[in-house]
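Objective 1.3, modelling of assemblies. Example input:
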Amino acid sequence: MPPREEFPTEGLEGAPSNDIGWHFGTPMPNARGNIVCKLCGKVVKGGITRVKEHIAHKTDNVTPCPNVTGVIRESMMNVLKESNTKKIDKKKEKR
Ligand SMILES: [Zn+2]
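Predicted structure (tokens):
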């Protein structure tokens, strides 16, 4: 069996929001905005976007995840780029 390196493309059932980041993080019940990385167990502060940056090794705000595979890391980086593009598009529409 090859190692499972598929990247989820849909939101996780039962997650707080329809965000693929919840495949990699579990919200801490008593600390709002703190999320535990499912891959390395590190607590990421600041919300699900920080978890995605942690997974993607986008290290502006967070330390990179030591346990993520290359496929997932690259896929998550693409997700972050796409969400940035969408935000820019929305701003254009309002103007
Ligand atoms: Zn991690």
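Residues 37, 39-40, 42, 54, 65, 67 surround zinc ion (CB under 6 Å).
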